[in-house]
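Q: Hi! First time doing this. I have a protein sequence and I read that you can turn it into a structure. Is that right? Here it is:
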Amino acid sequence: PFDAGLRHPRRADDRVPGCPQSAPEDGAHAACADDAHPQPPGAAGSAAAAGTVIGPRTGVAHRREATPRTRLRRVGRHERVAELADLDGARRLLPEGRSLVVADLGSGPGRTVRALLEYGPDVLYALDQASDLDDDLLTDARVRSQITDLGAPSLPLEPASVDRVVSLNVVEHLIDPVDHLAACYRVLKPGGLLVLAHSDWDTALFTSTDDHLTRELVDRFVAVLPRWAERSDGFMGRKLLALADAAAARGAPFELVTVDSWADPHRRFDDGSLAWKVAMGMLAAARDDPHLAGRAAGWVEGMRALADAGQFLFTVTDVAVVLRHP
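A: Yes, that's right. Below is the predicted 3D structure, encoded as structure tokens:
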């Protein structure tokens, strides 16, 4: 079935034990190995390296880093955005006795919430348009689950009350994504960070036996609106910087801190894996074309065979923009 999980891969848990940084699937062990000394939360230091604001280009002020920034140490989109939120850095700047407050927008069942909780926030608001948090998170005293319209011009939080906001795979579904950024700006404290992140679905890569058909299916997946969604944009990852620029005209003159992208490797293609879920979304997008749908079914079986032979790979590029409230 084609549901929110297919264009919301934060709902898919493809991690396996053994990788020191919760790698998504067995194939991501290579990504862990690429980091010679994977570190636990907090050990890598602040994601916002020291630098100076060198002035606005279009709407967003840009920072030049004084020294090369420590590369991301964690694997998995939820873990990476939690690292980029730099809760350790926020806590170091808090006045004594003040609580560290974080908001996760579009929280779903709570994978990003879990990743953020590893860094010890005092209060974590989990906001979404429906209640889908896992039961153990709902009973965590730090977590405040709220149902809200994420496309509304304001969030149900007090102005200048939040140290960090994370918005992952949300803006493609909103009528006005710039309003979403402006709403985030209003609830952030001065010096607070917004981690705005999105998968760029047009970059989906599958190992298959038919490259032309794969490209055709990816194009259709990006172009066809999912039946469960009112809107979507399969190119959203590459548009985040433009959204940040546009937010300045809405009273949200963010400073650009960093831009990161990654493509975690996934080698599984069993039912329930992330690659399988995205492939099922592609089958759903092709269902109105009987000829293409028939070919797509064979495409899926071909990828199962490749996975059984250890030759399968799936990736999709994620983009994360870290913005500071000056």
